[in-house]
Structure formats: structure tokens, C-alpha cells
Design a protein that fits this description.
Layout lengths: L29 E5 L5 H5 L4 E8 L2 E8 L2 E7 L4 H16 E2 L4 E2 L7 E10 L9 E9 L17 H10 L7 E4 L2 H6 L6 E6 L20 H7 L7 E5 L2 H11 L2 E11 L4 E2 L3 H16 L1
Parallel strand pairs: 1-4, 1-7, 7-12, 8-10, 10-11
Antiparallel strand pairs: 2-3, 3-4, 5-6, 7-11, 8-9, 8-12, 12-13
The protein binds 1-O-phosphono-alpha-D-ribofuranose (R1P) and uracil (URA).
């Protein structure tokens, strides 16, 4: 058993985790993860009952019951750095005893489902479709601090080669979705490899006033398949979720509402409606 000091694992005076402000008795095994805090009530409105509502910074959490089973929804805000906080604290809430600060003897595995928006980088994947990230490749710097490991990690040497092909200057990492959860979402037939970008503009091939140092980045990513898999879409969290989930022993899947097609330059005319449909579809599959 490992002990975690009060500065490694910070526990608030009310016994809750430092950023999420969730107590161990409140957290559920089944959790929906969204980016936008305002998306949380759009998910929990379908719960039969909401027992707990928590709000700290961008982290809004509702816990309740759906069809007799406990369920939660938590917002992470934007980006892989926030995912690092959310998954470290969620894992601590179920796998560390907050009274003794020791790891628990029995490991608990969470079922985690991201419902997010994303841009397509293949002409053949139009706006207003839903896509499961079968795997995701992370362009952020988390892998330089964490030795991600687990059966769902993508091969590092193959990723290095691929990153060189698209002339990306720093190492990337990648991981797959939970096979168990992919089976649960058969109602979404479209699967793809997702690029998780460390920003919204230049890191996703967008130019506003600041010019990108890698102007061909998006076109190269869309053209060069990784191990035969075309990169289908781009967003900002999935690779981090997948890498932490497999490393910490949790089931994780990311479902994307495709709002933009970066090749045809189309944007959805009803983004809110698309997300609501994805929420309903996901909750139907869970229930
Ligand atoms: O809709 P969400 O879940 O926020 O996801 C996508 O939208 C945000 C950018 O607008 C990024 O977080 C990206 O991953
Ligand atoms: O193009 C897009 C659309 C949604 N979210 C992203 O990160 N990129």
C-alpha cells in the first residue's frame, strides 16, 4: 500500500478532492464527461433524480440515478491539462482511502464516456455525423511527464515514425478506446482515429492573426494514415483520456459530434441540436 502526502493528494477540509470538490461517497462508477460546464445540466436533465450538484471553477458535477443505476456527469473545461486533473482526482476518489491516504486493496474501474464536439479532417465525414474515437493521438506534452502504460497504448516506435512523416517536432503518444465500451455503442457505426490537439487555432490548422509555424500540419495529418488508419477528426481531450484510463485501469470511450468539416469548410447549422441528440443516444445505450 502506498501513502500519499497532503501536498501530493490535496484533500479539502470537507473531505473532497482539491479541484473537483467531489467527496468519495458522492462519486459514481458510471460517469459522462463533457467539456462545457453548461452541457452538464443538458445531460442530467434526463436523470430520474439528481442527488448532488457541485461547482468549482470549470468543474461542474451532477450525480444521481438513471433507470435504477447511479450515474454522474462532470465537465472538464477545455484541454488535455484539465483531463490530467479530472482523471487523477477521479481515480484517487475511488482507489485511495481519503481517511488513511493509502491505496485501497481492491482496485475499482470506472466507466467513463466523453461526449464532445469535434472537427472532421476527411471530406467523406460530413458535419452532423457522430463518430467514435477508436483511438486517439495526443500532440500535447503530457507524455513527457507520465510514462503512460496499459494494454490500450499505441506503439511508441510506430508513433515516432508517423510523427516524423508529418514533420511534427515533439514526440506524440496515443491510446485506444475500451473495447468493452465500443461494443456498448453499436448504434454509432462510424469509427476513427482522432487527433488531440494542444490548442484550437494553429494546432488545429487554423490561421487568424498569428500565423502557424506548421502551415501544412492539418493537410499532412489528414493525408498520412497511422498504421493504415486515416486520422478522421480533431479535438482537444480524447488522447489524454484514453492514455490515463488505460494506465489507471478504467474503461473509457469518446463519442464525437462532428460540427465542422475542415476540408469543405462547412460548419453545422444546428450545433446545440447535434449535441442534444448525442446526449440522448448515449444515455439510451447506457440505460
Ligand atoms: O465540446 P468539447 O467537449 O468542449 O470538445 C471540443 O470543443 C472544445 C473547443 O471548442 C475542445 O474542448 C474540443 O475538444
Ligand atoms: O474543429 C473543431 C470543432 C470542435 N472542437 C474542436 O476542437 N475543433
Amino acid at each position: 500500500m502506498t501513502y500519499f502526502s497532503p501536498t501530493d493528494l490535496i484533500i479539502n477540509p470537507d473531505g473532497s478532492s482539491y479541484h473537483l470538490a467531489i467527496r468519495p461517497d458522492q462519486v459514481t462508477d458510471q460517469i459522462i464527461l463533457v467539456g462545457d460546464p453548461e452541457r452538464v445540466p443538458k445531460v442530467s436533465q434526463y436523470f430520474d433524480r439528481i442527488d448532488v450538484k457541485i461547482h468549482k471553477r470549470e468543474f461542474v458535477s451532477h450525480f444521481g440515478e438513471l433507470n435504477g443505476k447511479r450515474i454522474g456527469v462532470i465537465s472538464s473545461g477545455i484541454g488535455a491539462d484539465n483531463v490530467e486533473i479530472v482523471l487523477n482526482e477521479l481515480d484517487a476518489l475511488v482507489n485511495i482511502d481519503f481517511d488513511t491516504r493509502l491505496t485501497k486493496n481492491l482496485h475499482k474501474s470506472l466507466n467513463l464516456i466523453r461526449l464532445g464536439t469535434s472537427g472532421s479532417i476527411q471530406e467523406s465525414i460530413p458535419v452532423d455525423t457522430f463518430l467514435i474515437s477508436e483511438a486517439a493521438i495526443g500532440f500535447d506534452n503530457l507524455a513527457q511527464f507520465y510514462g503512460f502504460l496499459g494494454s490500450n497504448m499505441l506503439d511508441e516506435a510506430a508513433l515516432d515514425l508517423w510523427a516524423k512523416t508529418i514533420q511534427y517536432p515533439i514526440p506524440v503518444y496515443g491510446a485506444k478506446a475500451s473495447a468493452k465500451l465500443i461494443n456498448q455503442f453499436e448504434s454509432i457505426p462510424l469509427r476513427g482515429y482522432t487527433l488531440t490537439a494542444p490548442g484550437f487555432y494553429a494546432p488545429q490548422g487554423r490561421t487568424v492573426r498569428m500565423k502557424s509555424l506548421l502551415p501544412n500540419f492539418l493537410m499532412d495529418v489528414s493525408a498520412y494514415a497511422f498504421e493504415g488508419n486515416l486520422i478522421t477528426n480533431i479535438e482537444m481531450e480524447t488522447a489524454a483520456y484514453y492514455a490515463f484510463a488505460t494506465s489507471l485501469g478504467h474503461e473509457m470511450i469518446s463519442l464525437n459530434a462532428i460540427l465542422a468539416n475542415r476540408i469543405t469548410h462547412e460548419f453545422s447549422t444546428n450545433p446545440e441540436g447535434q449535441m442534444q441528440k448525442l446526449i440522448e443516444l448515449a444515455l439510451d445505450s447506457i440505460a
